[in-house]
Amino acid sequence: MNQRDLATLRRRLNPENRFPSLLRGCYLTPEGEIMSAFVKVVAALPQDEYEKYVAIFKKIYSGTQGQNLLPVPLGTNAGMEDEAQQLLLRLSNSTLRDDEAIDLLFGQVIESIHAEAEARAQSVDETRKADNRLVLLLGDTIDLRHRRSDGEEDPDRSETQFSYILCAVCPVKPTKPTLAWCADDQDFVAKPENWTVSSPEMGFLFPAMEEGGADIGCAMLYTKSAENTHEGFVRKVFQCEPLQAADEQRSTVQDVLTTALAEECSLDVVQAVHEQLTVMLAEQKEDKQAEPLQLSRKDMREVLEGAGVSQEKAEAFEQGFTDAFGSYGQIPAVNVMPTRQYKVSTPDVTITVAPDKSELVQTRMIDGLRYILIRAEGGVEVNGIPVV
Fold first, then answer.
1. How far apart are CA 195 and CA 229, in angstroms?
2. 80-93 vs 99-120: helix crossing angle, rounded to 10
3. What is the pLDDT of residues 302-323, one digit of tens each?
4. 242 CB contacts (<8 Å, ≥6 apart)?
5. How far, in Å, CA of 358 to CA of 274, rounded?
6. What distances in angstroms separate CA 328 from CA 249, 273, 322, 325, one per listed residue?
7. Is the pLDDT of residue 183 over 80?
8. Rounded CA separation 108/94 (Å)
9. pLDDT value at residue 144
10. 40: helix, coil or strand?
């Protein structure tokens, strides 16, 4: 999905409009037992309540693609994929009006929560303190406008319809009993424990939008924490192999890089790779129609050779990349190394530099010892005190 597709979907969640038609929910205990299930017609919701639901669903489009927003391929495993894909199609095509499909999906979510609880192996006391969960589904259909040759939409010409569903899984946390101001009584009164809905920890969009149309072979998973790809949920709902988390991909690439480059993995090389990735990601961000930047083994080899790495070491990296991700494997460029910061660390010192000022940092051997040198421009301060 590109930035324009995401923007199209975000606009549907305008609190001032009532574009989505139906909202369904299922309130679960920490063990996955159903406490309540409900159906709400969006047009009938009070404005303040609708705004709260909109705020929750907007989170499903937030974060960084490749880290918080992950494509989930469907229809890739023989046999099992049809069941998952067809269930999601039933839900989206019916705009959540297929009760049997709703029950099946909620059942899969409950199974994933059961599996998660068993994996945690909590004590009775820990289970009692665990959060409840609210599973929300939103159904919507968009009239997609015809795009002119300049890429802009024609407001007077509808081309097709795009039906989709959004799912949000939210922790529901208990509040502590407290003393609170009551406007009606004009006094402070005791408020008992209550349960409040938090921002979603995960969710998904199906189908993904691809250049203004439906890609039924892909869903988009949202995870609040880039370190957690919700393996149990992915297995049960999408019936596919777990996704690799962003930090796992980054750690793997860094291991391959340091092993393959060995003595050539210098500060200058890492600086050059960092600068190239920063430029590539900036160019991709400027193009609203561009897909998230993915790098293959050949792409990475070109980056390394552009950074001055020898052909031998670049080939060694390419082979290590292939061993880790496969011959046709690709990873999001944002997961190769962080480009929003430039940090140099030793066991005792950490230096953080603006990404566009990385050339200010150098390493140098002096009297047989390696030093980190920082070019001081515009004055130096220590704990806010100017020093000479």
1. 26
2. 130
3. 999 999 999 999 999 999 999 9
4. 229, 231, 234, 235
5. 9
6. 15, 22, 8, 8
7. yes
8. 19
9. 79
10. strand
Q: Is the pLDDT of residue 341 over 50?
A: yes
Model confidence pLDDT, tens digit, residues 133-160: 999 999 999 987 656 666 566 666 666 8
Strand partners, 37: 26
DSSP string, 340-373: S-EEEE-SS-EEEE-GGGGGGEEEEEETTEEEEE
Out of 7-11, 75-79, 152-156, 273-277, pick the least confident. 75-79
Residues contacting residue 63 through CB under 8 Å, at least 6 positions apart: 69, 222, 223, 224, 226
- Write out the DSSP string of 97-120: --HHHHHHHHHHHHHHHHHHHHHH
Backbone angles phi, psi at 42, to 5 degrees: -60, -40
pLDDT for the residue numbered 127: 55
Residues with Cβ < 8 Å from 180, sequence gap 6 or more?
A: 188, 189, 190, 191
DSSP 65: B
Eight-state DSSP code of residue 235: I
Give residue 287's pLDDT band: very low, low, confident or very high (50, 70, 90): confident
Q: Give the Cβ contact number of residue 39 at 10 Å.
A: 13
Q: Return the half-sphere exposure (C-beta side, CA atoms, 13 A cut-off) of residue 209.
A: 24
Q: For the chain, first and last CA: distance in Å?
A: 52
**How far, in Å, CA of 148 to CA of 6, rounded?**
19
CA-CA distance, 141 to 93, in Å (whole number)?
9
Q: What mean pLDDT comes out for the span 188-212?
A: 92
Rounded distance between C-alpha atoms, residue 285 and residue 292, angstroms: 8
User: What are the tokens at 9?
Assistant: 């979907």
